[in-house]
Amino acid sequence: MLGFQFTKWFWSLWDHLLTIVLWNLMYLSAGGLFFFLLRALTIKESFLSTVHPALSGIALCILLFLSTILQHACALSNYSIAKFESSKWKDSLRRAFRKDSLLAALLLDFGIALLSLIFFFGWHFYSRKGDLLSLTALGLLFWMALLILLSFGFYFPILVREKFSVPKALRQSLLVCLDNLPLSLILGLTSCVLFLMSFLPPLMLFFGPMGLGLWYEVSIHILYYKYQYLETLSQEKSGTAKNKRRKVNIPWFNLLVEERERIGPRTLSNFIFPWKD
Q1: How far apart are CA 95 and CA 63, in angstroms?
Q2: Does the keyword Transmembrane helix apply (predicted)?
Q3: Can you give the pLDDT at residue 145?
Q4: pLDDT digits over 145-181, tens only?
Q5: What are phi and psi of 113, to 5 degrees?
Q6: What's CA 158's distance to the chain center, in Å?
C-alpha cells in the first residue's frame, strides 16, 4: 500500500504542479503578511523585541485563521486531484470562504489554541515537580500531544469528504489514526522529512503545505477502499466480520486495480510532458 501511495502522490503532484505551486505561493503570502503585521506593530527601531505581546498575539491569531482557511481550500483542491478530477483553485477558495467554512475554521482554531494552552501550562506545571505522579502526567501529556498531531493530518481530508462538523471530523480522524497506528507513525515521519525538505527554496514550491496535504489526502483516498471492503465483507457475513475485523487480510492489489489503471504506465515523456496524455 505504501509503495502505491507514494506512486500516486508523486504523479498527482507532478501532473498538477502549477496548482501545487500556486497554493504554496499563497501560503508564503500569508506568512509574509504575518511578518508585515509584526513590522507594522513595531514601536521602536528594533523589530520583534519591541512588539507589544498582545498585538503580536493578535497577528498570530490572524495568521492561524488564514492558514486554517487556506488549508481547507487546499484540502478541497487535493480531494479533486486524488479523484483524478480537474482542480479549480477559485472554486476551492470560494467554498473555503463560505460562512459555514469560516465558522468551522474559527471553531478549529479555538480548539487548537485551547489545547496548546492546556499542554503548555500542564507541561510547565508538572515539569517543575520531580515526583512520580508528575512524571506520569508529563508522559501522558506527551503521548496525547503525539496522538493528536498524528491524527490531525487526517482531519481536513475527512472533513471535505464527509462534510462532518468539526468535532465529528476530529473524532473520526482520531479513530482512523488509532485504527491504522503503524501507518500513522510512518506518515508522521515522512511528513517531518517533507517539512524539512520544504525549507529549501525550490522544494518549498514543489512540496510545501500543499504537498503535505496531498500526502494525507492520498492516504485517506486509499484507506477508504479498505473501509468499503470491510463494510461489504461485514454485510456478506451478516455482521460476523465485525468481530474479526483486525484479522482480515486486506487484498490491496485487487482493491487498487482501477487506481493503477488510471495512473497507467509512466515513461520519461510522461514525466516531462504530462499534459500530452
Answers
A1: 19
A2: yes
A3: 87
A4: 889 889 988 998 998 888 778 888 889 999 999 999 9
A5: -65, -40
A6: 10
Q: Among candidates 240, 228, 221, 61, which has minimal Cα distance to 156?
A: 221
Instruction: Please identify which residue in the block is written with the cell numbers 499542554.
Output: 119
Residue of 203, 216, 187 lying closest to 12 (CA atoms): 216
Structural domain boundaries of the chain? 2-276
Alpha helices in 16-131 (DSSP H): 17-40, 53-82, 89-96, 99-127
Which of 262, 189, 225, 202 lies closest to 11, judged by CA? 262
Helix (H, G, I), strand (E, B) or coil at 207: coil
Model confidence over 195-204: pLDDT tens digits?
Answer: 888 888 788 8
CA distance 131 to 134: 5
Predicted model pTM: 0.83
CA 238 to chain CA mean position, Å: 35
- What are the C-alpha distances in Å from 191 to residues 187, 196, 214? 6, 9, 11
CA distance 219 to 154: 9
Q: Packing angle between helix 2-15 and helix 53-82, nearest 10 degrees?
A: 100
Q: Give phi and psi for 235, each to the nearest 5.
A: -70, -35
Within 10 angstroms of residue 155's Cβ, the number of other Cβ atoms is 25
| Per-residue pLDDT reduced to its tens digit, 92-104 | 778 777 877 788 8
DSSP states of 132-163 as a string? HHHHHHHHHHHHHHHHHHHHHTTHHHHHHHH-
From the list 122, 170, 166, the residue with the least C-alpha distance to 147 is 170
In this structure, which amino acid lies at residue 199?
A: F
